[in-house]
Automatic annotation (TrEMBL):
Its EC number is 2.1.1.182. GO terms for molecular function: 16S rRNA (adenine(1518)-N(6)/adenine(1519)-N(6))-dimethyltransferase activity. Transmembrane segments: none annotated. It comes from Fulvimonas yonginensis. It comes from the Bacteria. S-adenosyl-L-methionine binds at residues 12, 14, 39, 60, 85, 108. It catalyses: adenosine(1518)/adenosine(1519) in 16S rRNA + 4 S-adenosyl-L-methionine = N(6)-dimethyladenosine(1518)/N(6)-dimethyladenosine(1519) in 16S rRNA + 4 S-adenosyl-L-homocysteine + 4 H(+). The lineage of its organism: Bacteria, Pseudomonadati, Pseudomonadota, Gammaproteobacteria, Lysobacterales. This is Ribosomal RNA small subunit methyltransferase A. Specifically dimethylates two adjacent adenosines (A1518 and A1519) in the loop of a conserved hairpin near the 3'-end of 16S rRNA in the 30S particle. May play a critical role in biogenesis of 30S subunits.
Length: 260
């Protein structure tokens, strides 16, 4: 199966066996798992995951890829392919339909839309056991960045408040067809347990974080105008003259809980 990659879908098909084996080994699917793959493409990960788990659900937007993948999978296990844009799939409802409290997500995500997919998954974190994604390495670096890093930002904060973020290994361009212009990396995300999660209004938190990082050179007092004033920021024990990249994720939770 050698489909023509479509630029409109940001397709880069993984083909190098040793990296496929490393990813499947990192996921380590078990027979009772309900694995959901986002963007199976030609099935490089789908078939070995299916062989290990016995059944798998895949979400694929490109209708041209579905018949061949379904045919190849028929001799391996039970593959359900959902033709949909993952951003429109209710992952919580999917877990209920599959009869499990949590699904396990995997996928080689299209780089041009990776951040929206990550935020969408975080919205359904309560129904997800873990996630193993291949992404542009620069995105994985931002996901795992610590305060003070040049790449620490909105993505870092929002993901780290919802998940443990563990970069696993880098994948070079030559492992794909066609080769992307950048290195890729595999990351593991494990949603935090209920008692570890913040209880803040998610929309309020998102607004605070987005505004704080909108212009990185601005102080918090300037960046959060209209949301919080300097006195309120100080009440949270945070310097209003500080910049967003110096704050830990928990600091943003404190800001979001302030009255406004």
């Amino acid at each position: 199966m050698n489909a023509r990659p479509k630029k409109s879908f940001g397709q880069h098909f993984l083909h190098e066996k040793r990296y496929i084996e490393r990813i499947v080994g990192a996921i380590a699917p078990q027979a009772d798992d309900r694995v959901v793959e986002i963007g199976p493409g030609e099935g490089a990960l789908t078939l070995p995951l299916l062989a290990a788990a016995g059944r798998l659900t895949a979400i694929e937007l490109d209708t041209d890829l579905i018949p061949a993948l379904q045919a190849r999978a028929s001799a391996v296990g039970t593959l359900e392919i959902i033709h949909a844009d993952v951003l429109k799939v209710d992952l919580t409802a999917m877990a209920r339909r599959l009869g499990v409290p949590r699904v396990r997500l995997a996928g080689n995500l299209p780089y041009y839309i990776s951040s929206p997919i990550l935020f969408h998954c975080v919205e359904h974190a309560g129904a997800i056991g873990d996630m193993h994604f291949m992404l542009q390495k620069e995105v994985v670096d931002r996901m795992a960045a610590e305060p003070g890093s040049k790449v620490y930002g909105r993505l870092s904060v929002m993901l780290q408040l919802a998940c443990r973020v563990e970069p696993l290994f880098t994948v070079p361009p030559g492992a794909f067809r066609p080769p992307p212009k950048v290195d890729s990396a595999v990351v593991r995300l494990v949603p935090l347990a209920a008692h570890e999660r913040h209880g803040t209004d998610p929309q309020r938190l998102h607004a605070i974080v987005k505004a704080a990082f909108a212009q990185r050179r601005k102080t918090l007092a300037n960046g959060l105008k209209g949301l919080l004033d300097a006195d309120a920021i100080a009440r949270a024990g945070i310097d209003p003259k500080a910049r967003a990249e110096t704050l830990a994720p928990g600091d943003f939770v404190r800001l979001a809980t302030l009255e406004h």
